[in-house]
Each structure stands twice: as structure tokens, then as C-alpha cells.
């Protein structure tokens, strides 16, 4: 769950020669992709290249943009969205954040734990780089809550990494009680995983079904 303060405090919005795409990006990934389909592959690739500060990259982006805007396969669209989001990281975090949110949404729609976790890691890193460890931790908490739902699966390593990151970020934010709570929860999960219990990879491992919460 992204903090409302993140976008305004992020990098300055990089305006291009296509104000429609610039404006749509500020409304979220769905609005941007709808506008991009209306603009077409060529104009969208040109916009991306310009926003990245690499105008000569337009032709290299065309195939990825085509997949993003017109593929009938949601996996292909998610992959294309992720490729573009990754290009923006460290250059235009506003755009990267917006597109990784789209990747996260696709992962949830597909119920694909690998896509969800990759987007979670990327979004958390962006939030942390902008000085918001709470927002970063909330992405990992959301992942754990998603994973605990019935029939949802993931590798145990992804769960352990999410716990590690929440604990680290809680300490970074000065929230020692929250860190201790998540250490306790992780220890319980580790015992389940070491016992090769099915709950380590499928469904809820907690006896209390209430979702985890942040320290906000």
C-alpha cells in the first residue's frame, strides 16, 4: 500500500513532448496504458525513449511496447510492463513506481507469486530510497497477507525474505516493538517450514486468521 505522500515527494515529473501521456501517468498505470493504446506503439515508444533521456532508443522499445499494448497474453503484458519499469529505475522513479504497481496488479490477477514478489521487492526499494521505510515494509506485509490466503502459494524463501525485510525496515524506522513482533512471527513460520509442513508453501501458517498490520 503506497503512501499518498510518495508521489509528490519523488523525483520531479519529467515532461515530454506528449502531454497526454505525461498527464495519464500521474493518474496511474491503467490510465497511462489506455492513453498509450490510443497514441499507438510508435508515439508511445518515442515518449518512453524521450522520458528515459535516450531518444535513439525508440526503435529498440517498439517490440516491448507492442507486447504491452496489444498482446492477448496477460503474462506477456506483465513481462513487458516490468521491462519498461526496470528501465526507469534510478532515472524516473515516478514512472518506475507507477509501472511496477501495474506489474503487481497483474501478478495478483494471475495469482503468480513470482511476479507479485518481484514487483513487491522493486516497489519497496523505491519507497525506501525516497526515505519511507514504513511504505516499503507495507509492500512486504501485503505480500505476506496475500500469501496467507487460501490456496495461495510461494517458495518459503520468499516468505523468509519478506519477514527479514519487514524486521530490517522496522528497526530502520525506530520501531523496535514491531521488529520484535515480526521476529516472533518469523520464528513460528521457520518452525513450520523446518517441519516440512504444507503450510510453509500453501495457505495460512498462522492460527490467528487476522491479517498482519504495519506499525502506522
Give a verbal description of the structure.
The chain contains eleven helices and no strands. It has two domains: 1-114, no CATH class; 132-216, no CATH class. The radius of gyration is 19 Å and the shape is elongated. It has helices at 6-9, 19-25, 29-39, 41-51, 58-70, 74-88, 93-110, 113-129, 133-147, 156-172, 176-194. Helix content is 68%, strand content 0%. α4 packs across α5. It has 216 residues and is an all-alpha fold.
Element layout with pairings:
Layout: H1 6-9, H2 19-25, H3 29-39, H4 41-51, H5 58-70, H6 74-88, H7 93-110, H8 113-129, H9 133-147, H10 156-172, H11 176-194
- Overall pLDDT level: 93
What's the gyration radius in Å? 19 Å
Q: Shape, please?
A: elongated
% residues in beta strands = under 5%
Number of domains: 2
Distance between the termini: 12 Å
Approximate helicity band: 55-70%
Low-pLDDT stretches are 1-12
Give a short summary of the structure.
With 216 residues, this protein is mainly α. The protein is 68% helix and 0% strand. The chain contains 11 helices and no strands.
Key traits:
mainly alpha; about 0% strand; elongated
Amino acid at each position: 500500500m503506497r503512501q499518498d505522500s510518495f508521489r509528490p515527494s519523488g523525483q520531479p515529473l519529467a515532461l515530454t513532448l506528449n502531454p497526454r501521456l505525461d498527464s495519464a501517468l500521474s493518474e496511474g498505470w491503467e490510465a497511462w496504458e489506455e492513453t498509450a493504446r490510443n497514441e499507438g506503439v510508435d508515439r508511445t515508444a518515442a515518449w518512453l525513449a524521450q522520458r528515459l533521456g535516450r531518444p535513439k532508443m525508440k526503435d529498440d522499445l517498439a517490440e516491448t511496447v507492442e507486447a504491452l499494448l496489444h498482446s492477448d497474453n496477460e503474462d506477456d503484458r506483465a513481462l513487458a510492463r516490468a521491462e519498461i519499469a526496470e528501465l526507469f529505475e534510478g532515472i524516473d522513479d515516478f514512472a518506475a513506481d507507477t509501472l511496477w504497481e501495474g506489474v503487481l496488479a497483474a501478478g495478483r490477477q494471475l495469482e503468480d507469486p513470482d511476479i507479485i514478489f518481484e514487483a513487491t521487492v522493486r516497489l519497496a526499494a523505491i519507497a525506501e530510497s525516497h526515505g519511507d521505510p514504513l511504505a516499503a515494509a507495507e509492500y512486504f506485509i501485503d505480500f505476506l497477507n496475500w500469501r496467507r490466503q487460501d490456496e495461495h502459494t510461494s517458495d518459503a524463501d520468499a516468505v523468509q525474505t519478506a519477514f527479514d525485510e519487514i524486521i530490517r525496515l522496522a528497526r530502520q524506522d525506530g520501531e523496535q516493538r514491531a521488529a520484535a513482533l515480526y521476529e516472533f512471527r518469523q520464528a513460528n513460520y521457520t518452525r513450520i517450514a523446518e517441519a516440512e509442513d504444507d503450510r510453509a508453501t500453501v495457505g495460512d501458517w498462522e492460527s490467528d486468521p487476522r491479517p498482519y498490520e504495519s506499525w502506522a
